[in-house]
Amino acid sequence: MLAQERLDRIADYLKLSQSATVKELSQEFGVSEVTIRKDLNELESKGLIEKVFGGAIWLGPDQLIRTEIKPDVKQDTRQEDKARLVEEVLENISLGDSLFLDNGTTNRLLVAKCRQYYDVLTIITCDLTIALEATQAPNYRVILLAGELSNLSKTSRDFAAVDRLRSYRVDTAIMGCDSFSKEGVYTTSNEKAALKSSALEIANHRILLATGEKSRRRSLLRYAPMTDFDKLYTSQDADLDGLHDISHLEIKIC
């Protein structure tokens, strides 16, 4: 297979799957991981993808994330930044608190860290992996929102989960996103947007937890204006102009 043909086929593969690991692409196209990384560099230079640690995300000509990213791509991405953000966000949690933990790999790290520091918490989540991790703490009350599970992310993704969530009240909602800016916080589907919006409505305190590359992405649906949040925790590589704009809003950037 010629290099350009392989490049075109990798682009088609990513367009269809929306994200993939280097290992996955190497096996799919029968070339080394070194070759795949070079091909991804080429596609990124054309603005078609965003490289992440261990893989790539399809953006396309309009630079838009349309669907959820595969967990095996997200899991290996930005681990040091996520670990630091988790340590910092712990200051917002107290023994006995009730928390809504949004789905995502950063909150999966957070609930594991909570087990080290807090003997008693109530955890409400739509993320099966978070719920299972929380049940390892014998004194945690764990509420997994009902609904159809996504085979990809192992999270509830229908409006049954939204209806159940609205019957609760929590001290703090710790939220994720696919992208954020001064204009708002974004996700990729109506179901996810409805669930995230409802979580903000039931919380006394609202925290956005997002690594810096999400400040440079675009996604389909805004689930909340940035002003709905009390604090933003992000990493040092976040877009500085974007953070400057956000700093004029009534939100603390950490």
What does this structure look like?
Pfam families: DeoRC (PF00455), HTH_DeoR (PF08220). Keywords: DNA-binding, Transcription, Transcription regulation. Residues 3-58 form the HTH deoR-type domain. GO terms for molecular function: DNA binding; DNA-binding transcription factor activity. This is HTH deoR-type domain-containing protein. The protein has a 7-stranded parallel β-sheet, with helices on both faces. The protein has a 3-stranded antiparallel β-sheet with strand order 1-3-2. The model has no long low-confidence stretch (mean pLDDT 89). It has helices at 3-17, 22-29, 33-45, 71-75, 79-89, 105-117, 128-134, 159-165, 190-201, 240-247; strands spanning 19-21, 49-52, 55-58, 64-65, 98-101, 122-125, 141-144, 170-175, 179-181, 184-187, 203-209, 218-219, 221-224, 231-233, 252-253. The N and C termini lie far apart (49 Å). It is globular. The chain is 39% helix and 22% strand. The chain contains 10 helices and 15 strands. It is an alpha/beta fold. A hairpin with a 2-residue loop joins β9 and β10 (184-187). It has 2 domains: 3-58, Winged helix-like DNA-binding domain superfamily/Winged helix DNA-binding domain (Arc Repressor Mutant, subunit A, Orthogonal Bundle); 78-253, Rossmann fold (3-Layer(aba) Sandwich), CATH 3.40.50. α1 crosses α3, α2 crosses α3 (33-45) and α6 (105-117) packs parallel to α7. The longest helix has 15 residues, at 3-17.
